[in-house]
Structures are given as C-alpha cells and as structure tokens.
Amino acid sequence: MRNNKTTYTLRDKIAIGFAGGGLLLLFLLFIFGPLVINYLGGKQMNALFEGKGMEISDAEAVIKRPYIVYGRDNKGDWQKDYEIYNTELIKGDGHSDMLKDVRTCVFLWADTEDQVQSSQYYWTGTLNDARFCPVYMRVIDRETGIRYADIEIGVAPIVDLEKDKFTYSLYNPHDSWTTFDMDEWLAEHWEK
Question: Does residue 19 come out as left (phi exceeding 0), alpha (psi in the -120 to 50 range) or beta?
Fold first, then answer.
C-alpha cells in the first residue's frame, strides 16, 4: 500500500499563503470598502465645500457645464441632488453624476445653527412655536478655484424635538418655505 502524501515546495507554500491572504483581503474590502469610500468621499466633499485654498469672490456666480449638485442631509453628509426638486438645476443640460467630470459644484444646505422662532407657525399638537433655519446655495468654480458668496434661497422648518435637524426639502418651489426662484436665477447665471 502506497501513501499518497502531497509535498509542497517553499514556493507552493508561499503561493498558498498569498492566495489565502488575498481571499481575506477581498473579504475585508467587501465588508469595509464602502465605509472607507464614503469616509474619503465625505472628506473630499467637505474640503471642496469649505473651499480651502480658493479665492472667495463677491462677484455674481457662474454655472459652467458640466456641473454637479449636492445637498447636505441631517447627518452632515453630502448627497447628489439631495432634497432638491422641480428646478432646471437638477434637470438641466450639463448636469453630471460624476464629480471628476465637472467644472462647477453647487452645494445646498440648511444652517440649523442659525434658527429663528416664528410666532405665526406652531407644531401640530403642541403649543411650541415652530423654528426655521436659512437654506443656502454655494457655487464653486473648480476651473478657476473661485468660491462665490453664499446665496440664501429660503428657509427650512426645524424638527420640533430635534433642534439640529431640518424637515421638508432644501429647495422646492412648491413648498411655502422656498423664497427663491432658482430657474430665473439660473437663466442669468449660466456660462455664456
């Protein structure tokens, strides 16, 4: 009777080790990859929004095509077209899905730290006065490195029990909170 014992050379053992390590690496990338990508993407978006190293300009903003639009959610994360409705800003020619392809970035966000209490509106079922925060738009020209001055485009109601969160949309001309005509503004601010 013969024993069929397999013998491995050092090269075989190294190859098997790398294959096992590769599978472990693929598994870890599958589990943690999206978290790392979101974290790095969030850092990139925040750095772009802050405009570090950019020239701040009080000139009228210009939207150059292709462009991309982001809205900031209540967690502080930037999401493409988040809570922005019924405007050529997200439906228009030149709107892109890829940050790497764009010349202009447009950011919309609610400044929940700057709240005003209203004596005209109340939360349903409570006697608490409703609170509102301003919603702003920031335009950044990636080609020239210019960050234009912020434009107030309306207000958003603050969630009654969570004073650091807004409710409803960042921009929707059908909401009574939006005071800005985005499409009229865009008609004057597209690159000519």
Answer: alpha
Q: Based on C-alpha coordinates, what's the Rg of the chain?
A: 25
Mean of pLDDT values over 26-42: 45
Q: Is 133 helix (H, G, I), strand (E, B) or coil?
A: strand
Question: Position 41: which residue type?
Answer: G
Render 34-47 in DSSP notation, one character per residue.
Answer: HHHHHHHHHHHHHH
**Pairing relation of β-strands 104-110 and 55-57?**
unpaired
Q: What is the mean pLDDT of residues 102-123?
A: 90
pLDDT, mean of residues 93-122: 91
Q: Which of 83-92, 149-158, 159-168 has the lowest average pLDDT?
A: 159-168
Around 169, how many Cα atoms within 13 Å sit in the side-chain half-sphere?
Answer: 17
Per-residue confidence band for 42, with pLDDT thresholds at 50, 70 and 90: low
Distances (CA, A) of 137 to 27, 36, 55, 128, 183: 40, 28, 17, 29, 13
131 neighbors 157 (Cβ within 8 angstroms)? yes
Q: What percent of the chain has pLDDT over 90?
A: 53
End-to-end CA distance of the chain: 88
Q: What are phi and psi of 132, to 5 degrees?
A: -130, 150
